[in-house]
User: Which sequence fits this backbone?
């Protein structure tokens, strides 16, 4: 395990606004809230991140250890609804799709989390949530200005950052919510949050760590991510890719996932800053068009899978990002026993956009990527 070293230093903290200032701004529910703050190191000009994130002798990063230790502590405190490590899993079919039997999993957990956490509009975190659920908040991650990442002891939360919150309804080990917040303005779109999210993936520096984002018409102003640890790659990561765009300038590649029932694209680059900018712009465009989509971030932030989905106004049900990646939860043992590649492939195909729409999406993505080159 890593020994935590706490640093004092310069970092932006919230000042108490005057009544006149408050009247001109939105509510800042986190004012005065104190927690551990992890300040990530500054970025380099080439889009990479400085190599001074804290690591232990065995190579485990401080942020990775911090997430796992805080999550395990909450599990020990009884903050989780069940022990996800006891759930049975199996591999299904030649695509190596994954099925998990979890009879206690709550399929409505995202809606319940949104209702409990966010105000009805604006994507602002409720003051009552912060007040009544502090044990669920593990720590905060914010952008730093120094050449190395540091862990700051309990202080007022920075002006902008991302709260790391335990998910009491986990699908895998270390399941957390990552909730971007902004004291001085309403929550931004995914494009405004993806830069820090990508840097978190880089600093965790664990190939088992995967991040997710789900977007639909029901959560247009509530930007938050999820993350969890998977012992093996998700099935979609094992499939062949077809290159459709490659830039020698910034090293960004766009690839199409081959032989998969759900049409999907992959964005890959070691220039994480540029990758986050490109994917953020694409996702913001899809949001403005009210397009349902999911993101899967893997390989320490260097790969981002985009799963567009058809709009289903009748059922209103869409797949989660891990389901798009080939990982499915079953609540009944009979359904788990009967799980087949044919059945799962049918689910994936049912939400996939058609060939014409997918071609238009590829053209959009290539055009936006070229604009950033």
Assistant:
């Amino acid at each position: 395990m890593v020994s935590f070293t706490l640093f004092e230093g310069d970092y932006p903290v919230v000042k108490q606004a005057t009544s006149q200032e408050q009247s001109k701004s939105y509510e800042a529910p986190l004012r005065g809230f104190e927690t551990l703050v992890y300040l990530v190191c500054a970025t380099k000009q080439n889009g990479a991140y400085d190599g001074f994130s804290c690591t232990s002798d065995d190579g485990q990063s401080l942020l990775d250890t911090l997430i796992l230790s805080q999550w395990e502590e909450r599990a020990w405190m009884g903050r989780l609804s069940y022990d996800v490590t006891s759930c049975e899993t199996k591999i299904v079919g030649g695509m190596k799709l994954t099925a998990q039997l979890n009879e206690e999993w709550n399929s409505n957990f995202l809606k319940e989390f949104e209702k409990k956490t966010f105000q009805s509009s604006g994507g602002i975190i409720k003051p009552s949530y912060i007040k009544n659920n502090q044990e669920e908040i593990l720590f905060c991650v914010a952008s730093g200005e120094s050449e190395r990442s540091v862990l700051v002891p309990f202080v007022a939360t920075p002006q902008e950052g991302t709260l790391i919150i335990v998910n009491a309804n986990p699908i895998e080990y270390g399941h957390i919510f990552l909730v971007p917040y902004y004291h001085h303005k309403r929550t931004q779109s995914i494009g405004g949050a993806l830069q820090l999210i990508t840097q978190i993936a880089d600093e965790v520096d664990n190939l088992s760590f995967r991040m997710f984002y789900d977007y639909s018409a029901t959560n247009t102003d509530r930007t938050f991510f999820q993350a969890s640890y998977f012992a093996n790659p998700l099935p979609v990561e094992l499939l062949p890719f077809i290159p459709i765009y490659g830039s020698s300038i910034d090293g960004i590649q766009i690839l199409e996932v081959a032989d998969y029932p759900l049409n999907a694209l992959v964005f890959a680059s070691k220039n994480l800053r540029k990758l986050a900018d490109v994917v953020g712009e694409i996702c913001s465009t899809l949001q403005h068009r009210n397009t349902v989509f999911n993101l899967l971030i893997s390989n320490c932030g260097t790969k981002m899978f985009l799963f567009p989905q058809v709009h289903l106004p009748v059922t209103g049900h869409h797949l989660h990002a891990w389901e798009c990646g080939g990982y499915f939860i079953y609540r009944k043992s009979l359904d788990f026993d009967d799980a087949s590649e044919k059945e799962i492939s049918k689910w994936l195909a049912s939400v996939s956009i058609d060939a014409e729409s997918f071609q238009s999406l590829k053209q959009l993505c290539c055009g936006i990527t070229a604009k950033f080159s």
About this structure: The domain at 19-372 is CATH 3.30.428.70 (HIT family, subunit A).
